[in-house]
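Cross-posted from the bioinformatics board.
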Amino acid sequence: MSVVRIDLNRCIGCENCVNICPMDVFYFNAEAHKSVIAYPENCQSCGQCFLNCKGRALGISNDLYAFPITAFRGASSAPMNRVLITEPGVIGEFTKGKLP
Amino acid sequence: MENLTVKPRVIELPRPESVPCPYNESYTTDVLVIGCGFAGLNAAVSAKLGGAEVLVMDKGRPGYSGLSPWPSSFRWFDPERGDREEAYMAAIREGGDYVSNLAWYKCWIDESKGIFERLTDWGILAQYPKASEAGDFFEKEDFWGYRATYDRLDRHKKWIATLERYEIPFLEHTMAADLLTKDGAVCGAVALHVPSGATITVRAKAVLLATGGGSYKPTGYPVGTDTFDGEYMAWKLGLPIAGKEYEDFHSTSNNAPGNVFYDNHWQYLENIWLCGGDVSEKNASEYASNKGNIMALGRVRGAVYGVAKSDGSEIQDVATANYTRRGGSQVYESDPEELRSGKMSTPVGRSDLAGAATGMCCHLTSGVFCGFEVRNDVPGMPGLFVAGDGTHCTAPSGAAYPCGVGFTSCFCSIDGDHAGKAAAAWVRGKELASADEEQIEAKLAEISAPLQREKGFDPNWARDVLHSIMAPYWVSVAKTEPTLRAALTQVEYMRDNVVPKLAAASSHDLRLCMEVRHKVLSAELKLRASLFRAESRGTHYRADVPYRRDEDYLCAVTLRQGESGIELEKHPVPDEWTGESSAAYTDRYHYYFPGEGKAKGFTPPKTNWGGKRG
């Protein structure tokens, strides 16, 4: 449940993530002209950075998912916790049962 | 093992050692608006149009901060399109379990159309084709292509555009920490510019809080920015806080719990759907009980018993999901003039797991209590105004949320409009209070105190501990006296032993330390209110008292910091709002909590309790 870096080379330094993130996860390294995922532990996985990233340098990982009030659920319902949303098609593949 | 491939880990660049603060050390203004969602934006513009000088402060960037970037819908009342006040009033009175504030609901009846026109003018309600009907964006999951195609209509950027249009200056990424007072009146605030760590003092003739509600830890609902900041500041002034016992009903997906993006991505990118026109004299009672079933019982059953089938077949293929329109006008199909289509978002993963925003209260029920009248000034605290979800207890929808999708975005705008006008009227002819340097210095020192501690607790650890205490369903859904008392003991321990020893290593941590302080207080208030209301009503379910107790609890419950500790008080809801008291129990209430029929001696009908959404 966190933003992840896919490719730092793709970051064009537009600062959208730095300005948009409501959780203060991102900072900007002016010297390198690239953003820094400084506090991923405070990411709420809303994906506003991901959707507004001009260089497509970011992804949304489900690795560190957090449980809501309950996790009472079907025993064989596969968790999505090994899926990384980076490229188009991932969500559909998962919900069609093609991914674990 | 020879085929194993390992992706190299991308190492992030170092966080810069210092970040410049783009703002001044101090400001003066007529009205300081803290928080800029639907309530704050409307408040700021209305105060400005009322002739006041306005300064806006937001913890993030307006348009992307709090819950306001996320509504899927907006509903308004339109008598010219056939809406009837009596029908809506009947539905809200019954569906809100007879504790709805009908004076505020009447404001929605009278003013929501004007607010629709205002937000349309600002571009926030611009309409465009949904992703699954605009090309192959949905099939290809091409979020960026869809965004690029409709970029100029994107509502999120309209927040700053609107502030600029009305020439209202704003401080972003700036967290208000405490209010300034002089001679018993509010006269400003101290704040932290989070990225730089700079502190900012604002002296104002009036302060308007529109800071939203909060959650201990967002787990699938994007409420992370909201951390009860306004509630805390008001509490410190000794003001009454109401509605803490009512719980939020939002849910997340079984197969990706805690992943906000998975739950909301297309809704975020698509327009806000126009809703309303779905209540009539004929369906009012049924509408109310259906909403109660979904909002209150769906949550209770979903959290306690789970929803997903054990064979995993409940995981839904979003590509084939059949999502029908929700909350739309009954005459939409036949009337070409009708705009209120209802919510028809492109499908996202099914929300089938309750409790995605632990600690959040049911929309509009909680916050500073200003009485049952339509007012935004706080009795006994001149210079302070409150507005919006989680900050101002208006409770137009009572103990549940029977008003249909899209009510909160509209109602918060109305509430903000009222607050802005009231604040502008208040400051007219007033002088700015002189600065109390000693008070300012003390409050600024309090912000940075966690940085001065050599040892202390990590605020992220404290957040997780609090979440673990409060999240279990026996504390937050099916509440009982012993489980609430056990949680309260834990939270009181955190209040006394953890909060005073929170330590920060950065300005980012300073924000977290303040947020934990607010969350711990909020948890205590929630537990105390939940213990006090020894009945079940709307989104407050006491498994040990699973029925309504009209004789004792047709009231708002407030908590305030008194001289000798926390004071709880009942405020009876005006009689004319509480329905027919002589009616039989089963005529008065049409959905029932687990255990209610047995306790009250009747056999409840089998209901479809709304566990399957969407």
